[in-house]
Design a protein that fits this description.
It is a single chain. The N and C termini lie far apart (about 70 Å). The longest helix is centred in the C-terminal third of the chain and has 30 residues. The radius of gyration is 18 Å and the shape is globular. It has one domain. The relative contact order is 0.15. The protein has about 210 residues and is mainly alpha-helical. The chain is about 80% helix and about 0% strand.
């Protein structure tokens, strides 16, 4: 495999990905608890959990990677529990919500496995960036739906820089992949847009006049 960066830089980028994405999940859990609202879309939760399950328990490719993805898996399980807990106010029955979650988990796991086998992608890079692109889109949609409930600038920045580290690292390993390069660029653009939107929403919230006391 061709390497465009020195190994020390690659290791630093790996650490950046591991630390920053762990921070993302911790912040989502904290902000969700604080706002009593899940800060991650259900499709993203299911896609993340099944990717982490696949490459932790079924197709691990490195011991250190296995530890990191196990940590992410456990954190995403907490986020999923938050979603289920805070979904009490949704206009759907518990049976419908649980059936939807189970269906999405099965579909996501099958797709991750199929992509890994079809693309000979032992590290799950193609599906990982596919998930990331979906998350970038759905986070923006979630912002328009819930405003800042469950979301923050810290989450937005951590996601962008964590993914940027992963993009630079994977570009050094797969410099000839057009598909991956397109996803790197699209994710970065969407993440920048998300940061701007969160910032503007934060300013609006700060400037919003308090209701007069009765």
């Amino acid at each position: 495999m061709e390497h465009l960066l020195p190994l020390k830089i690659e290791y630093l980028l790996m650490i950046g990905v591991a630390v920053l994405w762990t921070v993302v999940y911790l912040l989502v859990i904290y902000k969700g608890y604080k706002d009593q609202s899940c800060g991650m879309p259900l499709a993203s939760i299911c896609a993340n959990i099944t990717w982490e399950f696949l490459f932790t328990f079924i197709m691990p490719f490195h011991p250190l990677q296995q530890i990191v993805t196990l940590i992410w898996f456990l954190l995403d399980c907490i986020i999923l529990l938050q979603f289920l807990y805070y979904s009490k106010g949704m206009p759907f029955s518990k049976r419908t919500i649980y059936a939807s979650v189970f269906s999405l988990l099965v579909i996501a796991l099958l797709l991750h496995y199929g992509i890994a086998v079809e693309f000979h992608d032992k590290m799950g890079i193609y599906s990982a960036f596919g998930i990331n692109l979906m998350m970038s889109i759905l986070f923006i949609k979630l912002l328009f739906t819930k405003e800042l409930r469950g979301q923050s600038l810290a989450i937005a920045y951590s996601k962008m820089f964590g993914t940027l580290c992963a993009s630079i690292l994977c570009y050094s390993l797969y410099p000839h992949s057009i598909l991956l390069f397109i996803m790197y660029v699209l994710i970065l653009i969407l993440d920048l847009a998300y940061i701007l939107l969160v910032y503007r929403q934060s300013i609006k919230t700060i400037r919003k006049p308090a209701l007069p006391a009765k």
